[in-house]
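Two proteins, back to back. First:
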Amino acid sequence: MSTLKCHEEIERLFGIKHYSGIHRFGKLFSTGQNIYYYDTGTGKVLQLDDDALKIMQSLFELPDVNDVNELMRVQGISISAINDFCQTVVDEHLFRAFKPDRLYTPGHNELLEEQVNNELSQVILELTGRCNLRCGYCIYNEDCDLNRDFNNSDMSLEIAKASIDYAAKHSGDKIAVTFYGGEPLLKFDLLKWAVEYSLKTLNGKKITFSLTTNLTLVTKEIADYLAFVPGMGVVCSLDGPEYVQNSYRKYANGEGSYSRAIRGLKLMSDSFSKSKNALSINAVFAPPFSHDKLNDINSFFAGLDFLPPNTDINIGYLAEGSLPNTEIKLKDNNNVNPKVMDPLWTWLEERALNRPVIRDDINNISASGIESSLISIEKRYLTDTPGEFYPFNGCCIPGARRLYITTAGELYVCERVGVSPSIGNIVDGIDFSRLKKYYVEDYSKGSIEQCQNCWAIRLCSVCYAHNYTETEFDSYEKNRKCNLRRSVHLKDLVLYHTVRENSPEKLGFLEHTEIY
């Protein structure tokens, strides 16, 4: 590169720093061994040598360095090193991320109606609003405003039939049918009817079924039935050993649910071990938070020798706001011990780095969370030159990826979204004017000011969940999550590249991983 072009390029970068803000273009991060630069526009990650690091620090961290002369004087950088840096920036198309005026995917815009009408992937039937437990951190408790309260409403056979008929009409060659509650096994009779009707009505499509259960109502009859429904997967809610499970997962009278839940898990495991269907377990990590508690939980699941091999066991924090007077402190704070700030992540990270493999044949809680973190970086958006459009963060195509149908037949974009505007009803179908307004236009308009200035815009996993009131998009609530999500994606970058430096063989599983 000529000296003139090099000078033009470095002055362009200082111009970005001075006039438009450099931080939306990328992020510096360190693994402890090396320092890297993640480029927002392309998704590329470059390892920095000493000279490149000094130039990057001048751009991102030193407010008093604002031109090439100050760069050379303060950082002691030679013209040759600056020229090499500028050549790399030009060759790799770095610092060229477009600044969007909206979030965009074809599926959210010109292809929305086509995909909603013809490519429905999952229909979720809320069989009942009832539950036989009153778990302390449940989002359906009356003390939690994230969602509806428990109720005595049950789905009718007519609404279940209409829901499956809708799925038959609007899906492609594959469809997933999910049963939800409350506790869906309270309506096991309707569940069985819906399965049999689905097998008949959706004949010719690849059908899968799933449900989440607290296990306490499982009988041998139920376990045997679910184990041999073609394509059935069951998510079992179980937090860990008896003292952990009974801390929050209780009946209304305060009695712990452990004994009935573990009995149900044994029945399910016995039946599913004889079939091709899969069990998985979802554990909630609730206060008090500690590594000792996580060790106890992990040892507990590893010791359940009756579980089918390689049972997928996921653990995550309770939903923010679900437990009154409890705050999960996951923010960056140099004065806070990391194990206190985010004990689950530091525990997972420590195991990922110190164990010989990410996942082995022992059932444990550490593999799934770490795998998803590594997958998010391995499968990130990556291109040679920056793309012009940025997607709707982690949002799926509303009304197409999944459709949640309440006991009353109201339609919502997802069971996880919580209190939010309805997008129609099962009798009249999707109201596209509401769908487009709330889940495309309002989401984009309410997000873009923050998103267009965010280095993690292409990594972002924020979705529709808990970002709405019953009548509108809540931009304040959505944007309040941004610092936390940036922190999460930064930790993902650091972990991925630390593993790649020290034990690249651990990432072998990524070659066979698909993203849906």
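And the second protein:
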Amino acid sequence: MTPPPARRRRSAASGSAPAHNFPRRGTVRRAQVITTYGVGSLIAVDHESFIVSGLDEADRSWSPDESKVVHERRLARLLDVDHFRLPPASEDTSKDGLRVRRFPLMHSCPECNELQPHRDFSPPRGRSVCGTCEVDLVPSRFVVACEAGHLDEFPYWQWLHRSTDRDAARVGKCGGRLGMRTTGRTSSLRSIIVSCTCGQVPDVSMEGSFRRNALKDLRLTCRGARPWLGLSATDPKGCGLPLRTLQRGSSAVWQPVLKSALSIPPWSNGRADPLAGHWEKLRRYEDSAHVAVYLDAVFDGEWPVSLDEVMSLLAAEREEDPDGEAAPTFDHRYRALRTKEYERLRSGNDESGHSRDEQFVCETPLGDQSVLRPLGVTGPMLVKKLREVRALKAFTRLVDAESTTDVTEMPLSQTSLRWLPAMEVKGEGVFLRLDETRLDTWEKATAVAARVERMRTAHQRVLEQRADDPSRVVPSPATPRMVLLHTLAHVLINEWSLEAGYPSASLRERLYAADDMAGVLVYTATSDSAGSLGGLVAQGEPEVLDRSVRSAIRRAEWCSSDPLCMEADAAGSAGANLAACHACVMLPETSCEHNNILLDRALLVGTPEQPGLGFFTPVLGG
């Protein structure tokens, strides 16, 4: 039997559409267009480097005509858009593709060592080679960025000549040509030498260019360049912020601002908003009689939805707005969105007749839940169907949007659009909660609070070090409850990847940790063959869940890196973990909501010196 041809994923095209005869340059997966190679990010294709174009009408990253419309009313309301669109998927369905621009423009030739803009090498059309040496050109390894999200070429001429001149028309007035070579003595920046044929300045290495004040000392500030919107595009508001040198492939060059929501009733059928454009007026009415009068006035004939459904939708939206506040903040609405998810996961929708379009089915398991009582676990729910929409709201550079307040987020377009790029995940999951009474007693223990305070202090220190303005740093989310739930989610994902056959990268956590919430949802994070086959839901039956939790906790007692792992004063890249490493509880980054920080398995099982630290120590003792 002949196998089907391999399916090729989305291709990134240089410049405009193929109608302009620009070739395809490579492929990326649909999910990567949201999480890794979104608007404004740099993408390496073979030996070339490009930046993904913006979403404006004049030069859009991809054609909306090729993108499926995705509806998720609660998330759309939070982000103030009408709908979302999926990125193009494959060459079979996409004629245009993902449009990109060449960036950085500065290239060097490894043969003749010249350093100049790409076009000055006179490369043949469609190729990136030196017109003289006929060898592949190397894109600049270095770029500069500011905290406002702007991105620009590294100022090689100014760095070499120690000049403060940023006028492009005057740069190079010395009459020489720049060159770059590597001495090969070391792999450090000291071995990368920049020179000029003018003979007026000595050769200079790139050593010191990454210092926080390296370009500030030359009085070079950001000019507001936005190359993803056009090679000559600059911010009309100007900028003037300090510039930082970055490696072209650094994660600090582009960090997505992602927001997600589960589709829960009454918005869990994925349909378009039946009353788009009417909500602001409808919210003025408290009783159904006035709502009916309004619907009669604006709709000829039959209403798009019943009156009962309209009142239910209005009630759901009012619950997400604070009392007595005309303009609820984004943070309040996002917390309210999570709270509503938690409430719905707790209550489920057993009583409703599931329609064919229902995308949220959450049921109470049939088994005896009392077997979970000794574990301190309660309220397991089988999420047999769920749908998550993850939207790319904006992006940042240099700073983490989740770690600072009033962070400058760079929008995906110059003009205001009524849609955002997004992806949807359909799958299944298991939701469970911890017993509130036992949890309250445990988290008030002095030893527990002291251990978590060490983590919180270390994490807060890292957040302050990464921010230029310490006054904008948000408090660390580390609390005993949060760290416990986070670590429990990780050990369960590892357990289920062994017992149920799921790759750990196919599972994802969603934490509900607050004063009035203590739950965790583990669900399938992809919509491929590991998406919704029922294997994960089966783990939520009380008897199976009891065995899984006990097995996961016992595995957490021991790590192949012990005793170093358990006795570590700080672990992880940020030093915000304690007893946690890649040999025990860390997961693939796609599975974790907090980038593998704020983990400590000692809070699950205790330590040899302090066994009482562990929430599940009584289980192990039995």
